[in-house]
Amino acid sequence: MTVTTLRRITGDEKHSPSAHSTLDVLRVLYDRVLRITPETVDEPDRDRFFLSKGHGPAAYYAVLAEKGFIPEDWLDDLGGWDSPLGHHPDRVLIPGVEAGTGSLGHGLGLAIGTALGLRAQGFVETRTFVLLGDAELDEGSNHEGIAYAAAIRLPITAIVIDNQSATHGWPDGWSGAPTWTGEDPQLAAKTSQPRAGLSAGVAARFPGWTVSLVDGHDHDEIEAGLWARTGHPHLVVATVEKKEH
Fold first, then answer.
1. What is the pTM of this model?
2. How far is CA 58 from CA 17, 22, 64, 79, 94, in A?
3. pLDDT means over runs of 10, the chain (245 residues)
């Protein structure tokens, strides 16, 4: 259903590859993991999700419409002069959006600050997720946040869509080597099996984080990675084929 909904969206064709690369992760997140509904968007103990990859929000809008956060007929006018659906998501105009994003390098910092605040308030069951693109990690501000989250063992899950689009490449290249360092052997077996085409390089930029490498289109693998709670910040690298971009 979400793919059909996404096809209704016009007005942002430039970013349609970005939207399609995130669709499976967003669908799994909202269908199987995230504790938020249209009725609980203002509850203080709700889970938080930040689309740091906010310059390609079409798939995000499609999922929000399918889950009832916004009317589906809004999708017919993405980017229109009077449409609430802009080329970047706007928290003031769209129910369920936690922050306006799209300026690369900002979303992870916003999510880290939110997770820190939730922990300070004692919301230990509330989870914070943030979705980034691999090229976005070329922004240096992300690495300050990565180091800080690791140092204080912040309970946050970052998801990186990896399609080899980073400008500067990745250390270690495309080896398919597993990088899981958590303690749950059942989860590790599902998410860290070596497979050709999976990048070990993205994980190298997250020292001190536990990592799950998953096929970015396999819903069961994505779910297993997202459910991980390891006592450390956790990274899910969702690999998609470069030809989609």
1. 0.83
2. 10, 9, 10, 10, 13
3. 53 58 94 97 97 90 96 90 91 95 90 97 96 86 95 96 62 41 48 43 88 93 95 93 52
